[in-house]
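To assess whether ligand presence alters the predicted conformation, the chain was also submitted together with fe (ii) ion. Input:
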Amino acid sequence: MTKIWSATFQEIPFEVYQYKTSKGGLGYLISASGQAVAIDIIDGPLLVEELEKNHLILSALLLTGYDEDHIEGATYLKEKTECLVIGPPHKEYAFLDQDVADGEENSIGPFSFIVYTMPGCEQDHACYFFSECLALFCGDSMNHSSCKKSLDLPDQLYFEAVQRIKKLPPKTLLFWGHDPQWGEDHSILRSLGEEVLLNPFLRAQTPGEFITLCENSD
Ligand SMILES: [Fe+2]
């Protein structure tokens, strides 16, 4: 687990740690004032070890979606830390304590976040915007210079979801669910403002422009 970002907002120091999984996914831990929230989890034992090493109490696990590469360690983590497990509604998983709904504002310890439901690899997917420290954990819904929309999801739906994300402050940092820079020390961090300039899928101004891009990409 690597510390990839830290900043102080209203005298509270926030830190973000990233863990890479053997399956190519990225999970995160955001910490402030000795408390932490994890976003997606594969390796439960590793995360528990890191929490102990860094003297952090885990309050919650936020799930962006239910692909195996994001949830595998959820049951272990919940058993060991008794954290609250929060994610988009899902009937199948007993570890889920609380469903999220689009636009919902939630606070846990020193953290406040807003939920944006956004289709990615799957229909039921959520992004979490931590409003005090301007951090967006976007899971599988977006990626560096590309999008992660599944072919069977309507382009229009994704386009509309992206337009809402684009209204967040341009300084918002994006923490992706997968890393195209795999093998480097850590992901290259990009702000939403930079991504809108560099990512043709985010730059598209109309649904038509967006759909043409989707049709011409894999
Ligand atoms: Fe994924």
